Amino acid sequence: MFSFFRIHNFRSILDLKVNFSFAEKKAPPGFKESDIVFFSEPKKGERLVPALALYGSNASGKSNVLMAMGVFRDCAISDIGGKYQPDKLHHGNLSTIFEAGFVIGGKEFVYLLEYDRDEVLKETLKADGTLLFSIDRGRCVFGAVATASYPADRLDEIFRVECSTPQKKQTRTFLSVIGSRYPGLNSLVTSVYGYLHEDVAVFSENGIHLSRGVDRLAAVLEKMNDPDPLKTAFTKITELLESLDIHIVRMELDRRRKRLERDPHERTYLDVEPDFLKRLTSFEKEGENIILNRDRIRSFHEDVEGKEVEFDFRTEESSGTQIVAGLLGVFLAALESGGVVAIDELDRSLHPLLLIELVRLFKDRRYNGKGAQLIFTVHNTDILDANLLRVSEVGIISKTLEKGSAMSRISDFRGVSNIENFRKQYLTGSFSGIPFPYI
C-alpha cells in the first residue's frame, strides 16, 4: 500500500504531497467487526486508507497527480527516456523529483528518484530506514545490496554498463536493472520492483477494454495457481457485471491467439494479416515472441418472450457497459493481489449509483481483504453523500500561478467530521477547489 507520494516540478505541480494515512485520531467504534474497510494496517501502527478521491475544478491539476504516478512507475521499472515534463511556468526548477512510501510484506519502503531531461540525478531506496542503495550523480553507495558474490565493485560495473550511457549518464534506474535482471541478488529490491511492475496500475482515462481487464486478472490468478486463469477471470468479471442491473443475462468469450516470432535476421516481427489486426484486443510477450489475442465477446439479453438474444459486446453494448466491464477486471486484479489502481475521471459515462458501487468494492471487506487501494479523480459529487468515503479519503486539488497545484484532504480542515455533508460543503466552496464560472 502507498503511504505517501511526493511530486516536485511536474507539469502544473511545483511541490505536492499525497498522503494516504488514516488521519482520524480514533478508529471508528466496532471497526474490527465492521464489513466496511475504514483503513488497512499493513504494518503495525500504520493505518492507510483504501480509497482516495481527488476533486477540483478543471485545469486544477488533478490529472497531473495521477499522470505523475504513472510516470514515476514507468521510470522506476525502466528508464527516464522522454519522461521529463517540468512546470513550464516556473523556470527555476531544473529537475523532477518523485518520492514514494509504500508498505510491502510488513516493511516500509521509501524510493526517491530525481532526474532531468538527460539523466537520473539521484536514486535511493530504503527499507524500514535501512539504506539498500543510493546513487547521487554517479556516486554509488550499495549498502545492503552488496554481498560477497556481488561486492561493490561488481555492482558498480553493472551500474556503469547497464544503467548508463557511454557518456556516463544514468538513464535507466538501478532498481529496474537489479529487479529484472538480477532478481536473486536482493529480495527486498526485487519485491519493490515486482510491486511497481505488476501490482501498481495507472490509467490516464476511464476506457479500459474488457479483454485487458480479463488479462490483468488472469495474470494474478495464474500466480495463485488457478488451473484455468483465463476462464476463471472472465467468469468472475461477468458474474459481477451481471449483478449490476445492466440487463445482461450471461456472457461468452472466444479467444483466438496468434504467435509472432522474431525474425533472427531482420530483428523484426513477421507480418500478420490485416483482418486479424482489425479485431486485435490484447497482446502479451512470451520470451522474444509476441502473442496477439483476438477476442470475440458475446453478451446475452432476454427478449420480451424470455428468450436469450445474442449481442456483440464490442459493437452493440453501450459505452457505459463496456467501461464498467473493463474496470471490473482491473479492480478485481488489484483486490486479489493487494495492488493499487489509479484512474483518471472514474465517473466518465457512469451512472452515479454504479460509480458508488465500484468504489464500494475497495471499501467492502468481502472484496478488499488484502489492502488494495483505489485512487481516482472525479467530478461527480453524489458519492460525497453516499456515506462511503471518510474525511481522510477525499482530496481537494486547487491551483494558483504562484504555488502551482496544491492538495488538501478534508481531514486537514478543522471542525469537519464524518457526519457532515461533504457534498454541500464542497459545492459551497468550504474546501476550495471549485470553479466560479460566469457566462
UniProtKB/TrEMBL annotation:
SUPFAM superfamilies: P-loop containing nucleoside triphosphate hydrolases (SSF52540). Residues 53-130, 245-385 form the ATPase AAA-type core domain. One of its GO terms (molecular function) is ATP binding. This is ATPase AAA-type core domain-containing protein.
